[in-house]
């Protein structure tokens, strides 16, 4: 239940600053740790489960998940708007329970149409839950602390995913329907537990509807924010690297040992757990965030160039050493990009609209999950070293464009808006 409407971002009853920053942040971290444990196991087992237990072909699995994330990307904005209007805590709890139900549906689905339906519901709930949790964080944490808290949450999530992936590895080793079913059941329970943890948070005030004539989903008309979201989506194309592209690159294009795939993933995960918060301390405002993203693009370009060197017919251990260096550079760029993006996504979202704005910004993740595998396999596996350089150029170009886009957004927000809702330019 939300408290009566009051100033945007206030919490009822009043709490001292230390409680507002520390205790809610720890509770949010516990909630995300809880469901990330289940998600880690889910991610490593889902493809084999859908193939071996449900009986779907790889094409059907790919289509169903792609369509699901496409629908989820669209649903994230209205679900984020719902969090603004009905209160982010209650909405987050509801969506966590709904995600548990969606995961549970996978336990009984045995046909392709029902799989597609369950995948769409699952992706919608996940995208909406992410937006609601971001709005909840914005309402409970002072603006100056949001990026640092978000970094701490990311570290916690990565730790949970790593432990969950290890549990999923046990199911992969056993390779039985019962083992896979157990993983999905654990993931469903993890979201129910996360919902219980979220109940411990204070309620953030719901924001009443705006004045007559004001667009309901204002973010869809915010052109600077849309451009920043697009640029961030390009930067998020690194997401399929460790799960798909680098394993294929190592096997098909290098002499490095195959077990290095696991080692590189460990480097990435452990680095985020240990250093994400430290990297986020460099972000204090929108300008420093844009500057850090620009540096992230440069680091990602260098990382791609080093990855390209590993496939130049070098020996096993030379290739392995080059890949380790490239992976280290990549995760540095990833942490810098994430820290800057969090500050920008929160800082440019108007008061009372954090849910819909975070939902819109989160579409970048869904789009990267949809388009990234096809684009990156074409560039890197198909083109080889030149493909790595093209990918690095995309990263650098998008990163350098973030600064001008942020300045455009700041000017746009400083422009007076008349009663009819049309900006005066």
Structural summary, described in words:
It is a single chain. This protein has 425 residues and is mostly helical. The chain folds into 2 domains: 18-198, Up-down Bundle (Growth Hormone, Chain: A), CATH 1.20.1250; 218-414, Growth Hormone, Chain: A. It has 14 helices and no strands. It has helices spanning 17-54, 58-86, 88-108, 112-140, 146-174, 177-198, 223-235, 241-253, 260-280, 286-309, 316-347, 354-361, 363-383, 385-414.
Short note summarizing the structure:
By secondary structure, the chain is an all-alpha fold.
The helix count comes to 14
Relative helix content: over 70%
Q: How far is it from the N-terminal to the C-terminal residue, by CA?
A: 42 Å
Q: Any idea what the radius of gyration is?
A: 21 Å
Please state the overall shape, judged from the principal axes of the Cα atoms: globular
Total domain units: 2
What is the succession of H and E elements? Answer: HHHHHHHHHHHHHH
On the 0 to 100 scale, the average pLDDT is 86
Task: Write the SSE topology.
Blueprint: H1 17-54, H2 58-86, H3 88-108, H4 112-140, H5 146-174, H6 177-198, H7 223-235, H8 241-253, H9 260-280, H10 286-309, H11 316-347, H12 354-361, H13 363-383, H14 385-414
